[in-house]
Design brief:
This protein is α+β, with helices and mostly antiparallel strands. It has 2 domains: 43 residues; 155 residues, no CATH class. It is 43% helix and 16% strand. It has a 4-stranded antiparallel sheet. It is rod-shaped.
C-alpha cells in the first residue's frame, strides 16, 4: 500500500488552514462590530449580544460612565449657579445706579423711591429668567449710617428701606467708619438669592446656598 496515496494533497491542507483562519478572523470582526453597536439600538437587542462582548469592555464602561455623568452634571449646575450670581449682581448694580440718580435735575433731592429701585432690580432678573419671587426675607438690615448735610436727607423712615425682600439704603456713608478721607455718600442695594444643587449620589445633592448680591453707587448732588 502506498502511504502517500492515503495522505491529503498539499494544496488541500493549505486551503483548509486558510479557510479556518478566515473563519476565525470573521468571527473576531463580527464580535467587535457587535460590541460597537450604536446606543440607539433597543435594550433587548443589545442585551442579547452582550454575551459576545469582552468582560473588560463592560467593566471599563461601568467605571467610566459614572465619572462622565458626574462631570457633566457638575458643569451644568455650577454653570447655572454662576449665571444666577452674575444676574443678581448685575441687577443690584442697576438698582444702585438708578437709586443714586435724581429723577429731576431741578427738584433738589428728588431721588427715586424704593419701589422704583426694586422694580429695576426685578426687571433685570426677569430678563434672565431668574424669579424675583424666590428672594428670601433672610437678608439682614445693612445698618448703614446716613450721610450728614449737605448731602440729600435719607427717607424719614430711615436710610435703609426694604421692599420685596430687597434692601435699598439711600444717602448713606460709603466710607468705612473712622476713615480720614472725605465722606462719600451714595446708595447700597443688598439682597440674597437661594440656589439648590442637584447632584445625585454626592454630598452636594439638594444642598441650598444663599448667594448675596450687593452693589453701591455714589450719589450725584
Amino acid at each position: 500500500m502506498d502511504v502517500r496515496k492515503s495522505l491529503p494533497a498539499k494544496g488541500s491542507v493549505t486551503g483548509s488552514i486558510k479557510t479556518s483562519y478566515n473563519l476565525m478572523r470573521l468571527s473576531i470582526l463580527n464580535k467587535r462590530a457587535i460590541c460597537r453597536l450604536p446606543f440607539a439600538m433597543s435594550a433587548r437587542f443589545i442585551g442579547s449580544r452582550l454575551k459576545s462582548c469582552d468582560g473588560a469592555e463592560i467593566a471599563e464602561a461601568a467605571l467610566v460612565l459614572p465619572l462622565v455623568f458626574t462631570m457633566l452634571f457638575g458643569t451644568i449646575w455650577f454653570g447655572r449657579a454662576f449665571n444666577i450670581y452674575s444676574t443678581i449682581q448685575q441687577a443690584a448694580q442697576q438698582g444702585a445706579i438708578t437709586a443714586a440718580r435724581a429723577s429731576c435735575a431741578t427738584c433738589g433731592a428728588a431721588f427715586p423711591a424704593t419701589t422704583t429701585v426694586t422694580g429695576v432690580v426685578e426687571k433685570v432678573m426677569n430678563a434672565s429668567s431668574v424669579a424675583p419671587s424666590a428672594i428670601p426675607g433672610t437678608t439682614l438690615n445693612p445698618g448703614l449710617i446716613a450721610c450728614p448735610p449737605p448731602a440729600p436727607p435719607p427717607p424719614q423712615a430711615g436710610p435703609c428701606q426694604k421692599n420685596d425682600n430687597i434692601w435699598v439704603c439711600s444717602s448713606v456713608k460709603l466710607n468705612p467708619t473712622g476713615a480720614t478721607l472725605p465722606v462719600q455718600c451714595g446708595v447700597v442695594v443688598v439682597f440674597q438669592y437661594p440656589f439648590v444643587f442637584h447632584f445625585p449620589g454626592t454630598s452636594l445633592n439638594m444642598q441650598q446656598i444663599l448667594m448675596t448680591a450687593q452693589a453701591e453707587s455714589r450719589m450725584e448732588n
